[in-house]
Design goal:
- The protein is of the alpha+beta class.
- It is about 25% helix and about 30% strand.
- Helix 4 (about 200-215) links the parallel strand 9 (about 175-180) and strand 10.
- About 40% of the residues are buried.
- The structure holds pyridoxal-5'-phosphate.
- The site of pyridoxal-5'-phosphate (PLP) has 14 residues, from helix 5 and strand 15.
Length: about 375
């Protein structure tokens, strides 16, 4: 593929930036966005950075009706010496293409997508907060835009990236959460779309989440869709258990989303020489370990929270209080190490961190 030039149109009016102490997740967006179009004749074309603005779409645009859409979620951090760092961005673009493949969306040029990311972030770099724990949340996504009500892959798409400054996930230190084990609804089944980051998975998860909230729980622990026996994920995070010294996470079985945080945690544990296994793990096994006193820790992993310790699991009428409801030693060490690497405070022996640098752009 010949490299396409990213056109840039600067916003003439700058929005007021939010107070860094009052940042919330996902409500305030920066001055610019990236957009690129697809049609059959031209393929993906006209990559450009433009002022942040609403889209104009035909009401029959296919994404509204049959959910042909994919997304990614990543974060950028600004360091004390004003560098902007991304964490394994190539992994996100690879996964975006894996999701594209599942949803019959034409693949994007991953290198161009990263260049787009760098160009956009560099333009809005003043929006990146610098306070401890804050970051810039990045949302790349693709929508099917062809105006047509037939059930078939769209012939037109838009690839868009938007950015929002976000506050510290843990304002008062890491807080373990209470989780409801979901035994009625399921998130995904093998052969379905569980391995893709696609809108429908999240729409389907809302009901379970609502019922968990009614029980005073922050999230749902999802079990497999066939036997409702084996553990899959927690909310929209991957999940880990520490049982009798061994760390266990469900193997990628065809219905679990392959998290980049998950992959990084496994690499860190191996680097430290700690026992880690990716395998099937049932809720029975976790409950038995709890009874035996060998269930040491449990935590979720994902880009937003990085690590989210589980303090209590509600399973039918049982309550499993893990590590006295406190953050475990391993969860804390993983959180400190991973966020340390991501923010440039700790050495990165894996080559995971990439500095945002713009190679070429055309400013109009
Ligand atoms: C995004 C996501 C994750 C976590 O992936 P990361 O790459 O670690 O952010 C896990 N499960 C689901 C369902 C997700 O959507």
């Amino acid at each position: 593929m010949t490299r396409q030039i990213i056109r840039v149109t600067q916003s003439t009016s700058k929005k007021q930036k939010p107070n860094p102490d009052e940042l919330v997740f996902g409500r305030i967006f920066t001055d610019h966005m990236f957009i690129m179009d697809y049609c059959i004749e031209k393929g993906w074309h006209d990559p450009r950075v433009i002022p942040f603005q609403p889209l104009s779409l035909d009401p029959s645009a296919m994404t509204f009706h049959y959910g042909q859409t994919v997304f990614e979620g990543m974060k950028a951090y600004r360091t004390k010496d004003d560098k902007v760092l991304l964490f394994r961005p190539e992994k996100n673009m690879q996964r975006l293409n894996q999701s594209n493949d599942r949803l019959c969306i034409p693949p994007i040029d991953e290198e161009l997508a990263i260049e787009a990311l760098y160009t956009l972030i560099d333009m809005d770099r003043d929006w990146i907060p610098t306070q401890e724990g804050t970051s810039l949340y990045i949302r790349p996504f693709i929508i099917a835009t062809e105006p047509y009500l037939g059930v078939s892959p769209s012939k037109q798409y838009q690839f868009i990236i938007i950015l929002c400054p976000v506050g510290a996930y843990y304002k008062e230190g890491i807080n373990p959460v209470k989780i409801a084990v979901e035994s009625e609804y399921v998130r995904a089944v093998k052969g379905g779309t569980g391995t893709a980051k696609t809108g429908g998975n999240y729409a389907a998860s809302l009901k379970g989440q609502e019922m968990a909230a009614e029980k005073g729980c922050a999230q749902v622990l999802w079990l497999d869709g066939v036997e409702k026996k084996y553990i899959e994920e927690v909310g929209s995070m991957n999940v880990f258990f520490k049982i009798n010294g061994e760390v266990v996470t469900p193997a990628l079985n065809g219905s679990i989303l392959p998290g980049i945080t998950r992959d990084s945690i496994i690499a860190l544990l191996k680097h430290w020489g700690l026992p880690i296994s990716e395998r099937r793990i049932s809720m029975e096994e976790v409950a038995q370990a709890y009874k035996d006193g060998t269930l040491e820790e449990a935590f979720g992993t994902g880009t937003a929270a990085v690590i989210s310790p589980i303090g209590e699991l509600i399973w039918n009428s049982e309550s499993l209080i893990i590590n006295e409801g406190k953050t475990g030693e391993l969860a804390k060490k993983l959180y400190d190490t991973l966020t340390g690497i991501q923010t440039g405070k700790l050495e990165d022996p894996f080559g995971w961190v990439k500095e945002v640098k713009v190679h070429s752009k055309t400013i109009l």
